[in-house]
Amino acid sequence: MSGRADLTPARIRHMTAADVDAVAALIHRSWVATYAPLMGADRAAAESAVRHRPEQIADSLVRSHSESFVAEAANGSIVGYAHAIVVKGALWLDRLHVVPARQGTGLAANLMHAVMVNYLGEPAISLEVIKGNDRAMRFYEREGFVVTGETAACGGIGGVASLIMRKPLPRA
């Protein structure tokens, strides 16, 4: 093998319990790499260690009104993950993570579109993005999201400001 990443198209599918450990590891690596520059490496690692444990990821598979998707490479590895949940009647994209080698390939958009198709009929989809995560902001804006508000505690993390973004969804 040449050492280059396998960039053959990934298959998007519903996540299963067999994916939990791989997804937890993917989220942790992605989260720390993304948020260490914004909140400090130690805090990013500590927050992720608390929030992205395998048992929490497994719980999301059985949570009412939620759905998880993975992107599976040809070699069987998990290279992307998306989770959405309806909370108090509103659809939220709770998590979207893609391995660095697949960023910029359209994989994140494919995962997000799988979520949106799954929730066809919902009026809109919302998300939180930490202020300073400019790459994610540009991605979501290209996908049609607009800023509708902000919060001082992204996902309940005190002192970490975020923007709320929303996108209307097409009707069935």
Question: Would you mind describing this structure in some detail?
Answer:
By secondary structure, the chain is of the alpha+beta class. The protein has a domain at 11-123: Gcn5-related N-acetyltransferase (GNAT) (Aminopeptidase, 3-Layer(aba) Sandwich). The protein is 35% helix and 34% strand. The chain is built from five helices and seven strands; from the N terminus they run βαααβββαβαββ. It has helices at residues 20-39, 41-51, 54-62, 107-118, 134-142; strands spanning 11-14, 66-72, 78-87, 90-98, 124-130, 146-154, 157-168. A seven-stranded mixed sheet has the order 1-2-3-4-5-7-6, with helices on both faces. Strand 2 (66-72) and strand 3 form a beta hairpin. Helix 1 packs antiparallel against helix 2 (41-51) and helix 1 packs across helix 3. The longest helix has 20 residues, at 20-39. The chain is globular and about 35 Å long. It starts with 10 loop residues before the first strand and ends with a strand.
Secondary-structure blueprint:
Layout: E1 11-14, H1 20-39, H2 41-51, H3 54-62, E2 66-72, E3 78-87, E4 90-98, H4 107-118, E5 124-130, H5 134-142, E6 146-154, E7 157-168
Parallel strand pairs: 4-5
Antiparallel strand pairs: 1-2, 2-3, 3-4, 5-7, 6-7
